[in-house]
Amino acid sequence: MVPWMSKELLEKLKGKKEVYRMWKKGLATWEEYRNIVRVFRDAMRKAKVHLARDAKDNKKSSFKYISSKRKTRENVGPLLTEVGDLVMEDTEKAELLNAFFASVFTAKAGPQESQTLEV
Predict the structure, then answer these.
(1) Residue 80 near residue 117 (C-beta atoms within 8 A)
(2) Is 97 exposed, middle or buried (0-12, 13-18, 19+ CB in 10 A)?
(3) Across-strand partners of 87?
(4) CA spacing 20 to 30 A to 37: which of 23, 66, 101, 115?
(5) CA atoms within 13 A on the CB side of 38
(6) What 3-state class would DSSP assign to 25?
(7) DSSP class of 28
(8) Using CA atoms, how far apart are residues 12 and 6, in angstroms rounded to an integer?
(9) For the segment 47-91, what is each residue's pLDDT rounded down to a tens digit?
(10) What is the pTM of this model?
């Protein structure tokens, strides 16, 4: 669900859909449907503006909104093995990163003995 969608907006959306169904059956006029669409659209715009204004105070909703708008994912670039070979395949990258993190977060390695991954 989108971050600005409240229970009130969901109820208005359901009402809009219901009036649309009624209009399709001839039980409501086009003007009634358009008025409900305008009310819903205005309420949704106000909710989006309210979310944008509260971005400083409500960080969780802000990041949820930003994440919903992102269409791409960041991919992991090519990695170098300990020997210096370049790893391009996703499964090989996953195995390499898994082995690295498993070696870093073992019980016998202390914080001063941690390794760094060279890219």
Answers:
(1) no
(2) middle
(3) 79
(4) 66
(5) 6
(6) helix
(7) S
(8) 10
(9) 888 877 777 777 777 777 777 777 776 788 888 888 888 998 888
(10) 0.49
